Amino acid sequence: MIAPSIVKTSAEVEDLGTSAVSWAAILAGGAAAAAISLILLAFGAGVGFSAVSPWSSGSSATGFNIATGLYFIVMAMVASSIGGYLAGRLRTRWRGVHTREVFFRDTAHGLLAWAFATLLSAGLLGSAASAAVGGGTAAVARVAGQSYGVLNGTVDTMLRRDPASTHDDGSMVAARNEVAQIFAGALQRSGDFTSPDRLYLAQVVAARTGISQSEAEQRVSAAIDQAKAAVDKARRAAAQLALWLTASLLVGAFSASLAAIEGGGLRDGTWKYQV
To answer: How far apart are CA 186 and CA 180, in angstroms?
Structure first.
């Protein structure tokens, strides 16, 4: 009995000499997607979609956050679709490869183009993107207690004196900075203001404003409640922003893969919706 010989067809031999990954097409599609993302990001910053304000309240703030998240999704969909389409349309044509294998490879090309665009945007374009949306994102970080600069409003309200008083010993700036540092340290400890801190703050307020100790304690308590509310709102806004960004990344990955399938089909002339 003669064992059957394994004979490779010319198509299979040709397929063995062709790489399954067209890195040039992937890099081109990823670079295009990253550039378009930056353009759309700058446009969104111009029209106000990238601003995140923890000080807003009411239904308008919720609606604005949703509009911002929807814009991130649309931005990812548009940029990723263009990048994935280019990756599929510019890739090398695979001859003698099964249709399902071509489908898989085109999907992988779109996904790799999206991944490259994401890494490129996070790395090389990070500074430009931060400059475009830095206003809103930095505000969230500062209010959360990472910097006491944005606490100036609360500190000024707490140390506000009688306008008719003209006494100024020149140490008000130092007192404001000290009070702001105490607030920032407490907010970094999840809003834990110790009793000595509260007492000291009340003494500083009483000394700087001329009000009684009991009134100073009430003013300090009100300022602490206001600061805690602002921090909680900022943290909720940051969490919502992170969820919207996650959704936009997933939508971008899907859009890039789907667009790469269309681009590859048009490249091979097999796209069924081709006119």
So the answer is: 10
Q: What is the rounded CA–CA span in Å between residue 107 and residue 257?
A: 5
Backbone angles phi, psi at 225, to 5 degrees: -65, -40
As a whole number of angstroms, the distance between CA 245 and CA 126 comes to 15
Domain ranges across the chain: 21-143+239-268, 146-160+171-230
* Angle subtended at Cα 47 by Cα 44 and Cα 52, rounded to the nearest 5 degrees: 70
| Phi then psi dihedrals of residue 56, to 5 deg | -75, 155
Assess contact for 182 and 158: CB atoms under 8 A. Answer: no
Amino acid, single-letter form, for residue 147? S
The whole-angstrom separation of Cα 91 and Cα 264 is: 7
Closest CA to 205 of 256, 153, 173, 159: 159
- Total-model pTM: 0.67
| pLDDT in single tens digits along all 275 residues of the chain | 444 443 444 444 445 556 788 899 999 999 999 999 989 888 887 877 654 443 344 434 444 467 888 888 999 999 999 999 999 999 888 887 888 888 899 999 999 999 999 998 887 655 544 544 444 444 444 444 444 445 667 777 777 776 655 555 556 777 777 888 888 788 777 767 888 888 888 888 888 878 888 888 888 888 888 888 877 877 787 788 788 889 999 999 999 999 999 998 888 787 765 44
- Check: CB of residue 207 under 8 Å from CB of residue 221: no
Tokens found for residue 19: 């790489």
Decide: helix, strand or coil at residue 270: coil
